[in-house]
Amino acid sequence: MSKVIRLGTRDSELALWQANTVKDQLQALGHTVKLVPVKSTGDLILDKPLYELGITGVFTKTLDVAMINGDIDIAVHSMKDVPTALPQGIVKAAVLKRGNYMDIMAFKDNEEFLGARDAVIATGSLRRQAQWLNRYPTHTVVDLRGNVNSRLEKLYNNEWNGAIFAAAGLERIGLEPENTIGLTWMLPAPAQGAIMVVAMEDNEEVREACAQLNHEETDTCVTLERQFLRELEGGCSAPIGALSYINKENIVTLKGVLLNVDGSKKLETELTAPLGKHQNLGVDCAKTILARGGRRLMTELASAGTEVNIFSTKKLTPQQQLSLNISVNADSDDFIKINFNRISPIVLKKEHKNVVFTSKNAVEAVLASRDVSELNFENIYCVGRKTRRFIKNKFGKITHYENNAKDLANHLVEFIDGTEVTYFHGNLSLEELPVILEENNITVNAIEAYRTKLSGKSIPESVKGIMFFSPSNVESYLQENSADKIAYCIGETTAKAAREHFTEVKVAKIPTVESVIELVNADYED
């Protein structure tokens, strides 16, 4: 073509390298190309993390405007910086053959910090931060902004142990430090290592020229990765990684990951399909993530900083947190702390015909004092499904269980073999069970196996409902907070304690954390 192709690019060293690569390839095909450097918002604002700038495509927006205004004909980007939805009128013109897609860790002295409890790692990427903290949860991650050159300089001028970079960026401008580690376990950003050329949709002549640069295999893989990203509706504000590749047998693989910012929650997926039947891999991988709690996690990421409306007095696991409905913005903490007592070896060496546990804590306390192989318990009775599961797992047997202490006491009164029980309990355990047994001439040898310490704290005024899992939870909560909330209780014993203070008390159908979550979800339907 006779027309000079005006190629817009950011003016950083890496962006210019990429632009010159496209320029050289177009000129090799006989086209005339002129570079037009343009400053982007992402280059101008260096004192904030990318996710705080409030826009996606922070490195591409200025070039988009220049193209729409007719100042340039094509733009060249690191494809991972390009939003999945291009502005109206702008289309993908080519994807060059992918470079190194890996992330690498650059460090100053040695690698010993990888095995240390405390280390400081620098990165401006939420995705890298989340994956690093998932693997090294005790490390500290600090923000790192600027172009590749300035970021390397900051690493050497600060007391950091290391900093994370895209391998392709360092390799392309010949800046890879001597001390680096390839982070093979870290999934890259979708389309990392790929260079994208965009043009105006109505500029057919320019698009035809650029189409000759397109690398089909790279285009196939990064399209799937960006499809995965688009389906999750994530951008710079969500820690999302994806990698697709095609093997020698023409099987297409797509791996995807979604995390929360501190890395404590992680959802992964991997799917394969033959080339030619791969078109929906990105969507399918995203749907797998969403079905396993990703929808909830994306909502948490979007609603970070919004008011908490539900509080759990027991620390929820990441999976339990994800099972809450999207309209629930929950926080949690342990309102009681458990300390196991040392139980006399003389007591535990004895034969015990009938043993009673009313909590999992009591079982754990006994096993902390003596190995299960050294215990001689003939009949084991307990309260609660969780306690029953734990006992069966550890002892391989259980005689009987009930959902509450009163029902277990009544069962023992009618069916016990003998007239004596050994009761392992906590310092705050209710007296209901031993009272009923002793009233029916059953001797109770009570052994305090653990102590419960109340450790409540003040919760936000925005909270409308509290999740309780024991009477001690209720007592601990009330030390610092009011009872003008809805009490969601794990069972009748806990509910009885709550009703003494709370006007509205709801009880789970079965005594599990998941059942309490179902109670909350019923009030906060999506």
Automatic annotation (TrEMBL):
Family: Belongs to the HMBS family.
Known EC number: 2.5.1.61
Residue span(s) of domain Porphobilinogen deaminase N-terminal: 5-207
Keyword Transferase: yes
Keywords: Porphyrin biosynthesis, Transferase
Keyword Transferase included in the entry's annotation: yes
Domain annotation Porphobilinogen deaminase C-terminal: ranges: 220-290
Lineage, opening ranks: Bacteria, Pseudomonadati, Bacteroidota, Flavobacteriia, Flavobacteriales
Cofactor(s) the protein requires to work: dipyrromethane
Record InterPro entries: 4pyrrol_syn_uPrphyn_synt_sf, 4pyrrol_synth_uPrphyn_synth, HemC, Porphobilin_deaminase_cofac_BS, Porphobilin_deaminase_N, Porphobilinogen_deaminase_C, Porphobilinogen_deaminase_C_sf
Pathway(s) per entry: Porphyrin-containing compound metabolism; protoporphyrin-IX biosynthesis; coproporphyrinogen-III from 5-aminolevulinate: step 2/4
Reactions it catalyzes: 4 porphobilinogen + H2O = hydroxymethylbilane + 4 NH4(+)
Coiled coil: none
Superkingdom, natural source: Bacteria
Listed Gene3D superfamilies: 3.40.50.10090, Periplasmic binding protein-like II, Porphobilinogen deaminase, C-terminal domain
Pfam families named in the record: HEM4, Porphobil_deam, Porphobil_deamC
Complexes and interactors: Monomer.
Function text: Tetrapolymerization of the monopyrrole PBG into the hydroxymethylbilane pre-uroporphyrinogen in several discrete steps.
Protein name as it appears in the record: Hydroxymethylbilane synthase
Boundaries of every Tetrapyrrole biosynthesis uroporphyrinogen III synthase domain copy: 344-517
